[in-house]
Amino acid sequence: MNRDLNQKVFVAGHGGMVGSAIVRKLKAIGYSNIITASRAELNLLDQQAVQQFFTSQQIDQVYLAAAKVGGIHANNVYPAEFIYENLMIEANIIHASHQSDVQKLLFLGSSCIYPKHAEQPMREEALLTGVLEPTNEPYAIAKIAGIKMCESYNRQYDRDYRSVMPTNLYGPHDNYHPENSHVIPALLRRFHEAVQRGDEEVVIWGSGKPMREFLHVDDMASASVHVMELDEKAYRANTQPMLSHINVGTGTDCTIRELAETIASVSKFTGRLTFDVTKPDGTPRKLMEVSRLKALGWEASISLSEGLSDTYQWYENNVVGVRSK
Q1: Theoretical Cys-Cys bridge with 161: which of 12, 150, 236, 271, CB 3.0 to 4.6 Å?
Q2: Rounded to 5 degrees, what are φ and ψ at 250?
Q3: Mean pLDDT across the stretch 275-300?
Q4: pLDDT band at residue 76 under the 50/70/90 scheme
Q5: 84 catalytic, yes or no?
Q6: What's the confidence (pLDDT) of residue 162?
Q7: What is the pLDDT of residues 259-281, one digit of tens each?
Q8: Strand 254-255 to 34-35 pairing
Q9: What angle, 0 to 180 degrees and rounded to 10, lies between the N-to-C axes of helices 79-99 and 137-157?
């Protein structure tokens, strides 16, 4: 394991769900030189500003957790923003890292990089073997580009830029907009508000049949730091020159109906669940094959029921100030 607690570590996207969890994890380990920058302080879409920031900070490591994210609705309505902003953010940070001689970088992608009908569970080798899910294709293409950027800088300049592909994430500091967010925060808010109003029904998008895998963000932060700190020899022994990304997940999934029923129980909602089949389901199933990460010494430790309970409690305690746009 490669750990120097005095190194300057930049966490891009520290205000988001994943970035904030990585900061918490790094602080818990004992890193004392964690660098962050708010949107007001640094516009990651501005190439010159990003380059100047890297030049002035003399950064040693980068966790690239900054991204524009959202659920099916947001991806459908704002495809241009999703591809443009994500491409610009990753291109600016990866290139500035190289130009500033940052040797170690971890890029955080997404399970949506895999084809819509990829064999389940999805292996890293499935990348670029089929057609993507249309509802989030622009976002997926941007994330694939990020993987290939890391691979390209490694090949041409012998950098150590790594990529991890998380399954569906949830936890504190998520976006809880009822339409633009991912399924868990959207449902947590919907059920919470239904309980507050005394509603007898909660409507869920889709048929409830698609199967999804969910990973608590604290587990994702733990996996990210684990992969970043692996000795280069150990990391490369479990990857390939043209297959540098590693899946991060639990290796288990559930139906959206089962998820909704669990959230109903956690929120103490006693009414009926109605599934709106006029809304899109998205990919039929998304389950990550995570044997490569297990071989590198890491696996998830937070169960879905435990994670949902903790996340719902966080939401209740922070409902006034949560992100909802």
Answers
A1: 150
A2: -95, -25
A3: 91
A4: confident
A5: no
A6: 96
A7: 999 999 999 999 999 999 998 88
A8: unpaired
A9: 10
Q: What is the mean pLDDT of the segment spanning 218-233?
A: 95
Residue the block writes with tokens 């902003």 = 85
Is 255 within 8 Å of 210 (Cβ atoms)? yes
Q: Are strands 104-108 and 160-166 parallel, antiparallel or unpaired?
A: parallel
Residues 6 or more apart whose CB falls under 8 angstroms from that of 62 comprise: 9, 10, 12, 93, 97, 102, 104, 105, 106
The single-letter code of the amino acid at 173 is H
Q: Does 180 have pLDDT greater than 70?
A: no
For residue 131, give the DSSP letter: P
- Give the whole-angstrom CA distance, residue 118 versus residue 300: 23
pLDDT of residue 97: 98
Q: Which SS3 state, helix, strand or coil, does residue 115 take?
A: coil
How far is it, in rounded angstroms, from Cα 79 to Cα 101?
33
pLDDT class of 177 with cuts at 50, 70, 90: confident
**Strands (DSSP E) found in the chain:** 9-12, 34-35, 61-64, 104-108, 160-166, 168-170, 201-205, 211-212, 214-216, 245-248, 254-255, 272-276, 285-286
**What mean pLDDT do residues 175-202 have?**
89
Domains observed in the chain: 9-318 (3.40.50.720)
